[in-house]
Amino acid sequence: MSQSKNTRIVLASRPKGAVTAENFRIEQATIPSPGVGEVLLKILFLSLDPYMRGRMDDAKSYAAPVEVGHVMEGGTIAEVIASNNPDYAVGDIVLAHSGWQSHAISDGKGLTKLDPKIAPVSTALGVLGMPGLTAYTGLLTVGRPQPGETVVVAAASGPVGSAVGQIARIKGARAVGIAGGAEKCAFIRDELGFDAAVDHRAPDFPEQLQRACPDGVDVYFENVGGAVWDAVFPLLNTFARVPVCGLISQYDGSGPSDSDRLPRLMRSILVKSLTIRGFIYREFADQRPAFLLAMSEWLRTGQVKYREDIVEGLANAPEAFMGLLKGRNFGKLVVRVA
Ligand SMILES: NC(=O)c1ccc[n+]([C@@H]2O[C@H](COP(=O)([O-])OP(=O)(O)OC[C@H]3O[C@@H](n4cnc5c(N)ncnc54)[C@H](OP(=O)(O)O)[C@@H]3O)[C@@H](O)[C@H]2O)c1
User: Fold this and answer.
1) Which pLDDT score, from 0 to 100, does residue 271 have?
2) Quick one: average pLDDT of 283-296?
3) Residue 2 — pLDDT band, cuts 50, 70, 90?
4) 109 burial class (0-12, 13-18, 19+ CB within 10 angstroms)?
5) Are 172 and 147 in contact (CB under 8 A)?
6) What is the model's pLDDT at position 245?
7) Cα(306)–Cα(62) distance, rounded to whole angstroms?
8) Which of 5, 209, 235, 240 stands the most exposed, by the fewest C-beta atoms within 10 Å?
9) Nearest C-alpha to atom 2 of ligand 1 is from which residue?
10) Which value, to the nearest 10 degrees, does the dihedral of the CA atoms of residues 289, 293, 296, 300 take?
């Protein structure tokens, strides 16, 4: 792909059911010139995240959808390569939200300067970025794990789940991770130090989960929904807390089908005094400084480890994104754009 052009991936059509390659289109455009007060960004890394699936649909949600024909939305790490803005110099590395493209113009609003000496800059999209903040705030503010309690989290090898389990252990709780396949389970147990790992693809997954949680579940950090929720739900203890962070099993055109779940759920909320509380990380944006301080220290001491899954080249973003929705990523999924 030519570096003299802006390569961008646009939403070609809205998915009907699962996302397909036809829903994306690669375009080449002239690299724009920065106007007064603007900077030109060269994108180094693009974050691929589950929320992007929601942006492809024209459904009412907490954020507006991407319009058909527009560049797919996404967090990025970028280098300033031309600047008419006194706050940014050529060579600055910034966290931006410039989407699935190789270059972008910004007026500087919403950019955060990064210091590459502190941590690899890609971590600002993962453990030190939005997914890390989501794990930190959702677990500590909504889940409130206590020493000795059992915390269960699914998608446990991903950026949100892996941080949830490790922070739970730092707070003295027992961390049980749910992940797809033996390799991911071994990673969360042996490398990240989860107390137990259960494969949600195993035919006897509910029984294995029950054995891994002999004292029931006090905090279930919900990332997945569907069959995983069904297995966790009967294990919830009285006064259990359920931060509802994501429902990835329902994102890609396979919504809930079992309508009897609602009465069963409502009865348990009542008789077990459950707290089931949805959240979007932005609600807790004021905790970002405390999060960065704590997470940087945990990374320094090795109490939190992270894994990245880096895909080479913007053209491979659609395939990698479709893989994310099927569990083919292993760690924080990031595209190296340049
Ligand atoms: N509320 C917020 O503010 C907020 C912010 C960030 C993220 N989130 C949510 O947090 C969740 C995790 O995000 P992430 O960035 O850390 O993603 P991630 O773990 O890197 O990737 C998603 C993982 O979900 C698992 N998965 C996909 N389909 C599944 C299914 N049908 N059943 C069970 N597991 C399935 C796969 O892991 P396995 O192979 O292990 O199954 C896949 O690797 C998502 O639901 C996301 O929407 C919410």
Assistant:
1) 78
2) 97
3) very low
4) exposed
5) yes
6) 95
7) 28
8) 5
9) 280
10) 170
- Which atom of ligand 1 has the smallest separation from the CA of 279? 1
Mean pLDDT of 70-85: 98
Q: Whose CA is nearest to atom 7 of ligand 1?
A: 131
* CATH architecture observed for domain 5-121+307-336: Alpha-Beta Complex (3.90)
What's the pTM value of the predicted model, to 2 decimals?
A: 0.94
**Is a pLDDT exceeding 80 seen at residue 254?**
no
Q: Tell me how far the alpha carbon of residue 50 lies from the centroid of ligand 1, in angstroms.
A: 6
Q: Are 24 and 85 in contact (CB under 8 A)?
A: no
Ligand 1: which atom is nearest the Cα of residue 227?
32
Q: What is the CA radius of gyration of the chain?
A: 21
Nearest-CA residue for ligand 1 atom 46 is 246
Mean pLDDT of the chain: 95
Ligand 1 site: residues with CB under 6 angstroms? Answer: 49-51, 131, 134, 154-155, 157-161, 179-180, 184, 200, 223-224, 226, 228, 245-246, 248-249, 279-281, 324, 327, 329, 333
Residue 154's pLDDT is 96
Give the separation between CA 148 and CA 226, rounded to whole angstroms: 27
Mutate which of 222, 223, 230, 277 to test ligand 1's pocket (most atoms within 8 Å of Cβ)?
223
Q: How many CB atoms lie within 10 A of CB 252?
A: 18
For residue 88, what pLDDT is reported?
98
Domain locations in the chain as residue ranges:
5-121+307-336, 130-282
How many angstroms is it from 52 CA to the middle of ligand 1?
Answer: 12
Q: How far is the CA of 125 from the centre of ligand 1 (A)?
A: 15
Of 160, 167, 288, the residue with max ligand 1 atoms within 8 A of its CB, to mutate for a pocket test, comes to 160
Which residue's structure tokens are 């003299």?
Answer: 4
User: What CATH fold (topology level) applies to the domain 130-282?
Assistant: Rossmann fold (3.40.50)
Q: What are the beta bridge partners of residue 336?
A: 45, 312
CA of 249 to the centre of ligand 1 (A): 8
